[in-house]
Design a protein that fits this description.
Layout (H helix, E strand, L loop, with lengths): L10 H10 L7 H9 L14 H10 L1 E2 L13 E2 L23 H24 L5 H30 L5 H26 L10
Antiparallel strand pairs: 1-2
């Protein structure tokens, strides 16, 4: 034997059932606004309502709103109970309305994914490097510079010993300093990835 079709309620009957169950939106006007806004689904020319479906849709479209008096989040308040929500603008910025539901979580996840994609794109273009890579490269560069300067002491001393004029000493020291500077530039390019500018000092 076929089961009887599910009984649909008029909007007034559905509003009365919500009121009887102690749920928000227990007025004919609140239900009518919900149907007109498409927040709950009506069937047929009279927009009859399935109680189970309407309850689920009503719950899904419920969120917290700001208290007009205190300016702080109140307990969960239904947007469909006939109470107007605060309009966006200087007096009630959208960012001030907390949203801890699925929509907020999805927005945060999409924002995080977008930031991650931007970081990866910047790394591929060479416009960004990871901090741990820079820290490690800085340590390696400093160590190689230290070793190069230490190993050059003996050769530099032997080269300067017989020199008798300041001009000759300056020329030798300048050549030595330039070799250390060239080493620093090369190490920076190799270990950090910073591009060299096409210019000659």
């Amino acid at each position: 034997m076929a089961s009887s079709p599910k009984k649909l309620l008029t909007q007034a009957e559905y509003a009365r059932s919500r009121k009887d169950r102690g749920l928000p939106g227990g007025s004919r006007e609140a239900v009518r606004k919900a149907v007109d806004a498409g927040r709950i689904t009506g069937f047929g020319p009279d927009n009859m309502l399935d109680q189970v479906l309407a309850d689920a849709e009503w719950e899904r479209n419920t969120r917290a709103r700001l208290s007009p008096q205190a300016g702080v989040p109140t307990a969960t308040t239904d947007l469909l109970d006939g109470v107007p929500t605060l309009p966006p603008g200087p007096s009630a910025p959208a960012a001030a309305v907390p949203d801890t539901g699925y929509g907020s979580a999805r927005a945060r996840r999409e924002m995080a994914d977008a930031e991650k994609a931007e970081i990866e794109t910047a790394k591929l273009r060479g416009a960004m490097v990871m901090r741990e890579d820079v820290d490690r490269a800085g340590y390696e560069i400093a160590r190689e510079l230290r070793d190069a300067m230490e190993s050059s002491v003996n050769s530099l001393g032997a080269e300067l010993a017989p020199i008798t004029t300041a001009e000759e000493c300056v020329a030798i020291l300048r050549r030595h300093n330039r070799s250390i500077q060239d080493l620093l530039v090369r190490l920076n390019r190799e270990k950090v990835g910073a591009p060299l500018k096409a210019q000659q000092a």
